[in-house]
Amino acid sequence: MEEGKSRFKRICVFCGSSSGNKSSYKEAAIELGRELVERKIDLVYGGATVGLMGLVSQAVHDGGRHVLGVIPRSLMPVAITGEIIGEVRLVSNMHQRKAEMARQADAFIALPGGFGTLEELLEVVTFAQLGIHQKPVGLLNVDGYFNSLLSFIDKAFDEGFISSTARRITMSAPTVSQLFRKLEEYVPEIDEDSLMLAWDKVERPSNYALDHGIIT
């Protein structure tokens, strides 16, 4: 991959609407935004102008790349302060927000954050496991923030709840440059079970559904 080039046109970033207690979190958000600009990648994110969300979106916007914020109307009073950053797309609820961000993105990166960040991250990981998408998912593991989550994934694998293929969906790196190297080189692996699923096709009811009296 040439310097400053990327296979991705737009990346979705999940992160906190708070800045956290360490300056390294804020620095990582700004560095990630600048890296997106350097690689000519646009940003899609949750639309807030506060916390790490505000920092990464401002860095991308200041660098001249397009910023798309997707936010439920009900969150606007608490998540948007001062000037709006880039384009804001209003949706009705959190489900629509996640669906629109996922639809717009070619890849996903998680910075440190709380419950919302974790929920968004695990949904796209789960969807990758089910074969709904084949987009890379990366954790920017600033100061080991995601170490406990990575340990959980290893534990779930060891205990037989996650396959070896699913275990490799989530990539992690401590620096922006290392994470992008992994994302750019990512080749999706598909579980045999997920090959049997057809999420984007409208078909007649399956034989299984008909045989078991399931209404479709």
Structure notes:
Helix content is about 40%, strand content about 15%. It is built from nine helices and seven strands. The chain has a seven-stranded parallel beta sheet with strand order 4-3-2-1-5-6-7. Strand 1 (about 10-15), helix 1 and strand 2 form a beta-alpha-beta unit. Helix 1 (about 25-40) packs parallel to helix 2 (about 50-60). It starts with 9 loop residues before the first strand and ends in a 5-residue tail after the last helix.
Summarize the structure.
This protein has 216 residues and is an alpha/beta fold.
Can you tag this structure with a few keywords?
216 residues, single chain, alpha/beta
Mean pLDDT across the residues is 89
Strand order across the largest sheet: 4-3-2-1-5-6-7
Q: Oligomeric status of the shown chains?
A: single chain
Strand content: 5-15%
Portion of residues within helices = 40-55%
Tell me the layout of helices and strands:
Layout: E1 10-14, H1 23-38, E2 42-45, H2 51-62, E3 67-72, H3 76-79, E4 87-91, H4 94-104, E5 107-110, H5 115-129, E6 137-140, H6 147-158, H7 164-167, E7 170-173, H8 176-185, H9 207-211
Parallel strand pairs: 1-2, 1-5, 2-3, 3-4, 5-6, 6-7
Helix pairs in contact: 1-2
